[in-house]
C-alpha cells in the first residue's frame, strides 16, 4: 500500500444540530490540497445591478444554498480520520473523502467550481467583468445571478427564465428561498416607489454599542477640517489591536457609506503604529455615525443608463511624505455605484500631475463599468463623462504635448489619449465648488460636505421629517 497523508476532523455543534468539519491546519500544501482561491461577488457589481433594477423595474430575489460546501467535488486525494463517535472494529481505519467538507482549505474553491458547472450546464455564461456574475440572454432579455459564497441574488427582465432558474437550482442543490431582497451581507435593502435604499443601520448601532459610543456627542463631519494626521517621533501610541479592529469594521461600513470613505482612508494609513491622535480620529468618525446611523444610498429611476464620473486630487496633502490623495465617484443610470479614496503611490511634482494620475484611475473604473454593462446587454451608446476641475490636467490629456514637465507621466497620457481617440470619453471642466469628488481627497467644510451628500444620493430614510 502506498504512503498517504490524512487530515483530522471534529464535530461542530450548533443548537441541536451537528456537522463534521475537517481540521484545515493538519493539511499540507501539494499533498492533500493545492489551489484554494474562490472569488466572491464585488459589491461594486451588486450596486450596478441595483441601479439597473431601479431604472428598469427589475425584480430582486434572494436565495441561500444549505450546506453549500458539501456539494464541492474534490480533485485531490484526501484521507481523514474516522469521525469521533463512529464505531469501527478495524484499527487504523481512515476515510477517503469524495466530497468537500466544511473546514477543508479547498472547500470554497470546490463549491464554487461545482456551482459554476451547474450554471453553465443551464445555459448561463460567466461574466468576464466579475466571475461571480452569471448571465443568460434569451429573446432580447437577460437574467442575472450573482453569488457571494452561498448567498445569491437573481434579477433581470425575463420572468420565465428566472422562474426556470429557480426550479433548476432546486434540483441541483438544497435551496432556501428568502423572498425579495431585504438583507444581504449585513446590508439592509428597502424598496419603495422612491427607489432602492441601501444602508447598514443595524451594523452602525451595533458598532456604537460595542465601543460605548451610543450616547456620545454627535459630530457633523467624519473628520476635522485642516487635520494634520501623520507620523511623528513624539507621538503617544495607543492600543494597536483595538485600533485595527475598529478601522476594519469602518472599512466594511464604507461599502454603503461613501461619506466616510476619505476619513477611513486616512486612519487606515496608520494601522502599523497608531497614536492617540489617530484613535481620536477614529472616534470622530464614530461620533459622525452617531449623528445619522441610518444614512445610506438611494437608487432611483432616472430614465437612462449613462455612465459618468467625477475625479479629483489633493496635491501633496499628506504631511508625512507629501504624496497626493486622489478619489473618484462613478454613476450608472444617475445612481452612485463605485467610489474610491486613495493616497497615490508616488510624489506628484505639480497639481496637474496629481489630477492627471487621479483621472487615470477614474477612467479605468469607467471602462470596467462600460464592459460590465456591455456584457449585461446594455452597451453604452453615449460618450462617458469624467468631470475634472483642473484645466491643466485636461489640457495634458487632450493635447499631444510632451516636455520635461510631463514626460514622466507619458504612460498615463498615452492610455488616456487612446481612449479619447476612440471617443469613449470626454472631460468636461467643472468648478471646484461643484466637484463632488473633492470630499474624497480632503476634509471639506460642513456646508460643502452636506451639499455633496444630497447630490450623491446619500440620505437617511429613517430620519424624522
UniProtKB/TrEMBL annotation:
Pfam families: RVT_2. It comes from the Eukaryota. InterPro entries: DNA/RNA_pol_sf (IPR043502), RVT_2 (IPR013103). Residues 21-224 form the Reverse transcriptase Ty1/copia-type domain. This is ABC-2 type transporter family protein.
Amino acid at each position: 500500500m502506498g504512503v498517504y497523508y490524512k487530515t483530522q476532523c471534529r464535530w461542530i455543534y450548533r443548537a441541536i444540530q451537528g456537522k463534521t468539519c475537517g481540521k484545515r491546519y493538519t493539511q499540507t500544501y501539494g499533498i492533500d490540497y493545492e489551489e484554494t482561491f474562490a472569488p466572491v461577488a464585488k459589491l461594486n457589481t451588486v450596486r450596478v445591478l441595483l441601479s439597473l433594477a431601479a431604472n428598469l423595474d427589475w425584480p430582486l430575489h434572494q436565495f441561500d444554498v444549505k450546506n453549500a460546501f458539501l456539494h464541492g467535488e474534490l480533485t485531490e486525494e484526501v484521507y481523514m480520520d474516522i469521525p469521533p463517535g463512529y464505531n469501527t472494529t478495524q484499527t487504523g481505519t481512515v476515510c477517503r473523502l469524495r466530497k468537500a467538507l466544511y473546514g477543508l482549505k479547498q472547500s470554497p474553491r470546490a463549491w464554487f467550481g461545482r456551482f459554476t458547472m451547474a450554471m453553465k450546464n443551464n445555459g448561463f455564461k460567466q461574466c468576464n467583468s466579475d466571475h461571480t456574475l452569471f448571465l443568460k440572454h434569451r429573446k432580447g432579455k437577460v437574467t442575472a445571478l450573482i453569488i457571494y459564497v452561498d448567498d445569491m441574488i437573481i434579477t433581470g427582465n425575463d420572468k420565465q427564465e428566472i422562474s426556470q432558474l429557480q426550479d433548476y437550482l432546486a434540483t441541483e442543490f438544497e435551496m432556501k428561498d428568502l423572498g425579495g431582497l431585504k438583507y444581504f451581507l449585513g446590508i439592509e435593502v428597502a424598496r419603495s416607489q422612491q427607489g432602492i435604499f441601501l444602508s447598514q443601520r443595524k451594523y452602525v448601532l451595533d458598532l456604537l454599542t460595542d465601543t460605548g459610543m451610543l450616547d456620545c456627542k454627535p459630530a457633523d463631519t467624519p473628520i476635522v477640517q485642516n487635520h494634520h494626521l501623520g507620523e511623528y517621533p513624539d507621538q503617544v501610541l495607543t492600543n494597536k489591536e483595538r485600533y485595527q479592529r475598529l478601522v476594519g469594521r469602518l472599512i466594511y461600513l464604507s461599502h454603503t457609506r461613501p461619506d466616510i470613505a476619505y476619513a477611513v482612508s486616512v486612519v487606515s494609513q496608520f494601522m502599523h503604529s497608531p497614536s492617540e491622535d489617530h484613535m481620536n480620529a477614529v472616534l470622530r468618525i464614530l461620533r459622525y455615525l452617531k449623528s445619522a446611523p441610518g444614512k445610506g444610498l438611494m437608487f432611483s429611476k432616472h430614465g437612462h443608463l449613462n455612465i459618468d464620473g467625477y475625479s479629483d486630487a489633493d496635491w501633496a496633502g499628506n504631511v508625512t511624505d507629501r504624496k497626493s490623495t486622489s478619489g473618484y465617484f462613478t454613476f450608472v443610470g444617475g445612481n452612485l455605484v463605485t467610489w474610491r479614496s486613495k493616497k497615490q503611490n508616488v510624489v506628484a511634482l505639480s497639481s496637474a500631475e496629481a489630477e492627471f494620475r487621479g483621472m487615470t484611475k477614474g477612467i479605468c473604473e469607467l471602462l470596467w463599468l462600460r464592459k460590465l454593462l456591455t456584457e449585461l446587454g446594455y452597451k453604452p451608446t453615449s460618450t462617458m463623462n469624467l468631470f475634472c476641475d483642473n484645466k491643466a490636467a485636461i489640457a495634458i490629456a487632450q493635447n499631444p504635448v510632451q516636455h520635461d514637465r510631463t514626460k514622466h507621466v507619458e504612460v498615463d497620457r498615452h492610455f488616456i489619449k487612446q481612449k479619447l481617440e476612440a471617443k469613449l470619453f470626454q472631460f468636461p471642466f467643472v468648478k471646484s465648488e461643484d466637484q463632488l469628488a473633492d470630499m474624497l481627497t480632503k476634509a471639506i467644510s460642513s456646508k460643502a460636505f452636506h451639499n455633496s451628500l444630497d447630490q450623491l444620493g446619500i440620505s437617511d430614510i429613517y430620519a424624522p421629517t
